[in-house]
Amino acid sequence: MSREEKVIGVDEAVERFVQDGCVLGVGGMHMHNNAMAVIREIIRQKKRIKRLVTSPSACTNADMLIGAGLVEEIYCSYVGFEHLGLAFNFRKFAESGQLRVRDCDEAFSVYSLRGGASSLPFHPLPKGLETTSVPKLNQEDYKVTKDPFTGEDVLCVRSVQPDVSIVHCQKADAYGNAIFEGSKFTDFDMIKASDKVILQVEEVVPNEYILQKSHRIDVPGMLVDAIIDAPFGCHPTASHKYYTYDEDHLKEYLKASKEDFSAYLDKYVYGTKTNEDYLEVIGGREKATQLMERDIPW
Amino acid sequence: MSREEKVIGVDEAVERFVQDGCVLGVGGMHMHNNAMAVIREIIRQKKRIKRLVTSPSACTNADMLIGAGLVEEIYCSYVGFEHLGLAFNFRKFAESGQLRVRDCDEAFSVYSLRGGASSLPFHPLPKGLETTSVPKLNQEDYKVTKDPFTGEDVLCVRSVQPDVSIVHCQKADAYGNAIFEGSKFTDFDMIKASDKVILQVEEVVPNEYILQKSHRIDVPGMLVDAIIDAPFGCHPTASHKYYTYDEDHLKEYLKASKEDFSAYLDKYVYGTKTNEDYLEVIGGREKATQLMERDIPW
Amino acid sequence: MVTALARGLKDKEVVIMGAFSAIPMLASRVAQLTHAPNLTFICGGSGAVNPVLEPLPYSSCDDRLLKAECIYPLPDVIDLEARPEIDVFFAGGLQIDAKGSCNLIGIGEPGQMKFRGPGSVGLPFLSRARRFIIYTMGHNTRIFVPEVDFISGPGFIDQEVLSSGPSMVVTPLCVMDFENKKMRLKSLHPRVTVEMVTENTGFDLIIPDDVGETPLPTQEELVHMRRIDPMGAARDSIQ
Amino acid sequence: MVTALARGLKDKEVVIMGAFSAIPMLASRVAQLTHAPNLTFICGGSGAVNPVLEPLPYSSCDDRLLKAECIYPLPDVIDLEARPEIDVFFAGGLQIDAKGSCNLIGIGEPGQMKFRGPGSVGLPFLSRARRFIIYTMGHNTRIFVPEVDFISGPGFIDQEVLSSGPSMVVTPLCVMDFENKKMRLKSLHPRVTVEMVTENTGFDLIIPDDVGETPLPTQEELVHMRRIDPMGAARDSIQ
Q1: Which H or E run contains B274?
Q2: Beta strand pairing call for B71-76 and B100-103
Q3: How many whole angstroms separate alpha carbon B226 and alpha carbon B228?
Q4: N or C: which end of chain A has fewer CB within 10 A?
Q5: Cα gap D5→D35, rounded to integer Å
Q6: pLDDT in tens, B205-250
Q7: Within 13 Å and on the Cβ side, how many CA atoms surround C123?
């Protein structure tokens, strides 16, 4: 008998692991490490998302799914484009009521997933967070219990366990043992909390590489269900230590989302069948080289 | 102005940061990474410990303090010597009532410190852990509250924030930025939960080394109050990837703790003033070489 | 702005900032290189602790921050935000009110916002930081309102919080602080008048007799700023 | 013992073990190299996932385990112990009873134990593992008792738990399983008789008609065992 590899095509991964009506986690933060190759495939397959779970700061990963009309509700700590501006699909769908926003904050993003990762029924919050408007706006996910040691009221959040999460790592072997070369954001807790995990990677490395670097392995393979080999798969966002975000493309995206987002989707998502197609459309090797070449301190 | 270094003598560190009657955390697990140079100094200075907090599996780090008569109570998930046998000081003091044992388990060890690290008033447990004798034996630290989302009863543990913790890392710079070369056990959560942290290290490395390895730094310096430069300071336990535990010495220790522990303390603790003295008494360079030379797969 | 923020930080403090923070990052690094060598600063989502910052990036999660003393995982950063270790939290908002509360949730009524904001992110932790500093890239009456529509980060509110509250507000026009829990003009940036500030503030700002001028950067500060920020990320941030 | 344990593991299972685990570590690695290539095993406190194990160390936290596919931090391992991912938990105890409950707390009455045990460590998580396997380095009436004085890890108890309970017990004398939630002899190791087992067991063990002989290691298993464990850590573990 021999060991089974988990590297499969993005189309197969989405077909098998992303069910219509699922609770979907998407990793990455701001315009970094968004697993866009898989997210574009979710849009191609028109999978409907019951509830979207993100890091404390979501970006295109959430906004594109929303703009494609696939998201029913979102746990929202922040959706935006940092210094590049606001997320227009998110705003439009939220303001028109097509998207239900379950307001939350950074503490919810982290502790709800940690509660999920530890199989806790709920997760208490540190004192003070009850003073904002967030728990008042979202009484479904923030509730009060008694501290059994002091009898005082304590605000708690619901534990969250996504049905499936889509996370980007820089390297993994064929069995799912994976390395974040840069920041991990909240992706590791998301992986731990999720029932199924699709890992998009820049490169698949040999198992021997993993064994030589055991002190650097962030994700043990047992937590991973499918590996998608998608170089430049984060575009237009960055993949830490591999390439930076494509500011020109993000500005084009933001303009499109203000004006005619379906044209954007037609050109870049429905009009491309694979990650390779997509990379040709956004500018091929020349664009890739440009995003890799930059001043770095390390 | 220039940046202040945190490397100080072990005597000064214990005088300044370990108060009589404190809640003390000691890092390491089984016969690995016990910060014994600092613990021996605590015994020399006869600091009284109100409550001892350990990893899920304590060893000499707890047993020696108990045998020196300094510990009033202990959160006990396990105190022992794994394949080498039971902890006799612990047994003797527990059975005679001189030591108050607050029975707990691995889940308590981890989640009570995580609760402390996150400033939570308490920490819920996953369902099922209420079925053992542990919460019945320790109703002070295990209590039941309501899940505010379902109304069901949920067993919870007290959050723990040690006044000071003594942890061993392999490397740190003079500002406390530190690396665990091997396993971290539960030491990182202990550091996060503690008010003050004394870090014992095998070697102090330059800040430039840290900046070159930023992806490998486990502890940011802001969490560390004092750094103790103590090569071989874990003896008779191991320091991961530096040297193994001294099985002969541990057997001598266990024999002494069954028979005449004060003679052991006189010879190895009260009879030595510094870590350097101690290393001479246990066999000097020859012993050190022997513990470093062994078959390793990496 | 950078100079005012840098001088607002003290030696040995631990400082944290979130999204859109080129200016606070630069200010922290300048403080560290001048009067506050023992300052620790943490760049939000990237987890970078004391990054070298050459060059200063636009994004708080940029991988160019990762030459640092530690890449502290974000969940650990968030644990830290709840601990007394954080001395200064840098905050901002779509709306900021006279008592220093900040709003990133939106504008309008619950359930029918006419403007949906991005969300509160880390601002709720303002309730636990020793103090916080507000900075904003614009200064107008849409931002500075009498009372925020929603509270993402509490300023001086009626409920008790652990934080001592906001200590300073820095905008492209001026520096402000607080007197009896209400915002007060402290100093004007060069070429700015009191009228320019009051016209662009949607509530009655306390105007003391001795409004000073915001100090200009010293030669030393300028040298550091130019070396750290060759791309001009800080300047580009101002609207 | 190693062979019996190895064959008790199935392909694709995730297996976890705690302290004093030279034998389960060796058994897991042998299973992986023979019939279960997709088995994942985690060595307790070290956090080593799928270590190469050459040489097999005595301590479950030894740094010689750290040539592995991941060094998974212990708190994360403990989170995993509460998740449905763990198929098999290796357990043991000072006392083990007919229903498979294990005790590491001590012997005697609460508040006045005549023998204070080391403590329960990870055994409470037996309530959540899909199933668990008990192994013990001795087989006598002090260990195998009618009812444990304290429950560290619940076997077939009255309360409902998520686990399907203990599936197998391996001792230096024999292999046992469970029938109607009570322990039953399954096979005898070479040169062991039914009487030797019953005399050393403090309760009425179910003795079926067809007690088999525990299979000997195959040549392939022996080759792996000798290469992985040149120091004889597994053999030394048996009392």
Answers
A1: none
A2: parallel
A3: 7
A4: N
A5: 13
A6: 999 999 999 999 999 999 999 999 999 999 999 999 999 999 999 9
A7: 33
Q: Which is it for strands B49-54 and B22-26: parallel, antiparallel or unpaired?
A: parallel
A118–D35 CB contact, under 8 Å: no
What is the spatial distance between Cα D56 and Cα D52, in angstroms, rounded to a whole number? 9
Residue C28 distance to chain B (closest CA, Å): 15
Give residue-wise pLDDT tens across range C42-92: 998 999 999 999 899 999 999 999 999 999 999 999 999 988 889 999 999
pLDDT at residue A294, rounded to an integer: 87
State the pTM of this model: 0.97
Residues in chain D: 239
Q: Are A168 and A34 in contact (CB under 8 A)?
A: yes
Give the up-direction half-sphere exposure of residue A202: CA atoms within 13 A in the CB hemisphere.
20
Residue positions counted in chain B:
298
Whether A177 and chain D come into contact, CB under 8 Å, resolves to: yes
How does pLDDT run across A152-203, given as a tens digit for each residue? 999 999 999 999 999 999 999 999 999 999 999 999 999 999 999 999 999 9
Task: Please write down the HEC assignment for all residues of C34-69.
Answer: CCCCCCEEEEHHHCEECCCCCCCCCCCCCHHHCCCC
Q: Low-confidence residues of chain B, pLDDT below 50?
A: none
Cβ of A296 under 8 Å from any chain D Cβ? no
A29 bridge partner residues: A32
Contacts of A77 (CB under 8 A, 6+ apart): A54, A55, A56, A57, A58, A104, A105, A106, A108, A109, C119, C120, C121
How far is D116 from B87, CA to CA, in rounded Å?
A: 10
Q: Is the distance from CB of A14 to CB of A164 less than 8 angstroms?
A: no
Nearest to D161 by CA among D186, D136, D190, D128: D128
Query: Whose structure tokens read 């019945």?
Result: B136
Q: Which residues of A touch B158 (CB under 8 A)?
A: 149
Report residue B65 CA to chain centroid gap: 11
Burial B159-175 (b: 16+ CB within 10 A, else e): bbbbbbbbbbbbbbbbb
Give the nearest partner residue to C157 out of A106, A131, A240, using CB atoms: A131
User: What SS3 string covers A73-130?
Assistant: EEEECCEECHHHCECHHHHHHHHCCCCEEEECCHHHHHHHHHHHHCCCCEEECCCCHH
Burial category of B152 from C-beta neighbours within 10 Å (exposed 0-12, middle 13-18, buried 19 and up): exposed
